[in-house]
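Entry 14. Two folds queued back to back today. First construct below, sequence then structure tokens.
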Amino acid sequence: MRHTVLLFSPTGGVRRAANLLAGAIADDFEYVDLSLTLNGQRSVTFSREDICLIAVPSFGGRVPEIAVERLSAVRGNGARAVLLSVYGNRSDEDTLFELRDTARAAGLVPVAAVRAIAEHSIIRSIAAGRPDAMDAGLLRTFGGQIADLLNTGTREEVGLPEKELLRPYGGVPLHPKAGKRCTGCGKCATLCPVSAIPRDDPTLTNEKECITCMRCVAVCPVHARRLNPLMLSIAGRKLRRACTARREPEIILGK
């Protein structure tokens, strides 16, 4: 039996939540990075006995399109899957529904799902420092419950209702750009999940390709990349009104 995490974590929040959950399920998970084209592989193939944890952020209430695209290259062969949706304290809306359907299409059997909260990747003051100690305790508890469920051998699908219409996602009208500090090292271009930063001139950003995942901002060694401060302030004021109450992690098991 192989334990694998399929992970899309541009700024690290999803990875931290996945580490907490996975560590309580089993101690031998291997990680496949969906942001780097399946670790350079064309596809990932599972057997029926394997366990897969799929961990993604919620982008506007949906699974990032690039993550859906790369998950389509997975060959599940009936392996059981645990779904993890991580959001910035507002709501993950249709993320788990879309992730469940994506897992099914890849031949996986989703038997459990978790919603978790991490620091907002754009407005960093929202859910700052999360997952925190309280989140960690809950996620480890959830992981133990999922481990017990998996040990029963169940293949009963997670209890999420069917949903035909998903929330439209039109993207974010903000895109990071490089400032005067940029040294041209190209780390942002190398690690951009959608190749929106030209390798020959990493000061630029292709706004049509950019998904505002904020990885380039997170990995820049000299903190040269950022969003427009005025636009960021306006967006922050609007979003904070919907994110004042603390949200807590949730677990969903079989029907």
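Second construct, same run, same settings:
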Amino acid sequence: MNQTTNAELLRFEGRPSWGVAFPQAMQHVLAMLIGNITPPMLIAGTCGLSAEEQIMLTQAAMIIGGITTLLQLFPVLGFGMKMPNVMGVAFAYMPILTIIGEQYGIAAIFGSQLVAGFVSIFIGMFIGRLRRFFPPIVSGTVVMSIGLSLYGTAINYIGGGSAAQANGSFGAPKFWLLAILTLLVTLGCNFFGKGLIKTSGMLIGIVVGYGAALAMGGVVDFTNLQAASWFSVPVPFHFGLEFHPDAIVMMILMYMVQAVQTIGDVSSTAMGGFDREATDQELGGAIKGQGVCGMIGACIGGLPTDPYSQNVGLICTTKVVARRVFTMVGVIMLLAGIFPKFSGLMATIPQPVLGGATVTVFAAITMSGIQLLNEQPLNYRNRMIVGIALALGLGIDAAPDILQFVPPLLQNIFGSSLVVSFLVVFLLNILVPQEKAEEA
């Protein structure tokens, strides 16, 4: 019976029971929750929004994430990829969103997002012709760069996050204890568990870590849960729309970069979950789905979305790809958006617990990038292209002051390791001739 249930989880059209699918869905919700609600909170602060508007922005993030996740599962007129993934507000957009928000305000963010989302639909339409410019050496490097760049996020979570840094408790022994306990339970389930225990390792680790945090006292904060209302929906066009040419150009550039990340994430999902390469139709559908949902988000207050790499890593780790599981993820996200008490409860999970659980996920993302790179011969040419791209991207990210004499706009663009690594690997792959004889 367990073998049959497990097999249903591992097929896209599989029909595991709702009771079996729910813990799998909750793993994905927990993996993306903090990452999804943090960008709107930061942008609300940047744009000087009221507390009420901050809640509206956070709600919209959950709703647009749910809509995009469901559209990717159930394509409409070619919009969507018909593969599992979890979509949410993207951290990669933060530098551009911050610049636009500081200069023009929140309405300009959504105005430029509306236009850029429309433009990205055409990128998806022509992905078949463009895909040759993004072979595994390019997409693999981007995915690997994403995984490596997320390690700092995991360590920050383990130390207690920004709140702990502010009050001087960052890296406290109790935080390390919670993170290590969560990590050990997660790894124990993944390595030694069977059936649902094995595939639910991250959820079990978080539950154990959360229980330990409650027992410690003073670690779990219920403030957000108490303040959250029971029911509310976003007000369309509440934040307005403004159109500024420079803001639109910046946003279009970021949508182009995110299209490459989407190629990498979708490719990783196909490889890790289905043991095959993604098709042009799937890649194009994913990008077009993101684009149209970006336009919808601009109307209801939802910031730009992309596939969540940590959830891609979870797919690669568990091999769970059943559409029923990810349908539940999308529905849960929608409910969290219209019932803020639900998302408030999720937000009470301490960051050290999330950090300990997501270390395994971020590691899986990095290994997915390596797996993609191995699809091409790792001869001298390819090794050097990948090595230089990662060295420059991660190097500039580690020493951002090297860009202090560069115009502010370019500082924000090239201060991202993902952008630099992408541009370097993309250009070198085009400019450097292929080796005639493959060398080991």
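Quick look at the second one. The longest strand covers residues 87-89. The mean pLDDT is 83.
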